[in-house]
Design brief:
Elements: E1 15-18, E2 23-25, H1 26-30, E3 35-40, H2 46-64, E4 68-73, H3 77-87, E5 93-95, H4 100-104, E6 121-126, E7 130-136, H5 146-160, H6 169-176
Parallel strand pairs: 3-4, 4-5
Antiparallel strand pairs: 1-2, 1-5, 3-6, 6-7
Length: 198
């Protein structure tokens, strides 16, 4: 991974084509929410498929927790769509068939010259594409468990949601005073429409 991609840094706002052949920017997919970004080898890899199968259940929590999930692989558009459909996913899958992300982040998996994938990573992002945590998944058990991702999303949500604990006297007073900008979904950071991810 590129040396400047560390916790606290801003992750590049890549624009890629999704499984439905639509151009998407990471910042648009993230909106004002925490996001889990999966950098995947692709649908050919049984480890990546297993990881996506596990993410299916967590994605239901991610949605109701107002967070986002995105997968990028080096598959072409057709294979990206097949990968997504094959695991039953409902979050955006982006195609990096040109290896732009792989090259820019310096994560080419040189031990697999046949497929030329990127080294799998999972990156947890705070709003604004700020890196919170990076997991290197070259070995399967280097990847985060669903519980680790749940804990990461809890920490990031607590950090970015001003109304995390609405029982505080300060927030109660703010609500009574009509200062709704501190509360979800009224606040300025929450004004974007959630919309569907897929």
């Amino acid at each position: 991974m590129r040396s400047d991609i560390v916790p606290g840094a801003t992750f590049p706002d890549y624009e890629l084509t999704d499984h439905a052949a639509k151009r998407r920017k990471l910042s648009e997919l993230q909106g004002p929410h925490p996001m889990v970004l999966v950098l995947s080898r692709g649908g050919f890899c049984p480890k990546d498929r297993r990881q996506s199968e596990l993410l299916l259940q967590l994605h239901r929590e991610i949605e109701v927790g107002y967070c986002r999930l995105v997968t990028i692989s080096t598959d072409n558009i057709s294979a990206t769509n097949e990968y997504r459909t094959g695991v039953g996913a409902h979050w955006p899958f982006l195609s990096d068939a040109g290896r732009m992300v792989q090259k820019d982040l310096d994560i080419a998996e040189y031990t697999d010259p046949h497929n030329n994938p990127m080294i799998p990573h999972v990156i947890v992002l705070e709003p604004g594409l700020i890196v919170y945590k990076i997991y290197n998944g070259y070995w399967y058990f280097g990847r985060p468990t669903m519980e680790e991702l749940r804990q990461d999303l809890r920490a990031v949500s607590q950090k970015c949601r001003p109304d995390w604990d609405i029982t505080t006297p300060e927030l109660r007073a703010a609500w009574k005073e009509g200062r709704k900008e501190l509360f979800y979904p009224y606040g300025k950071t929450y004004t974007q429409t959630f919309g569907e991810q897929d």
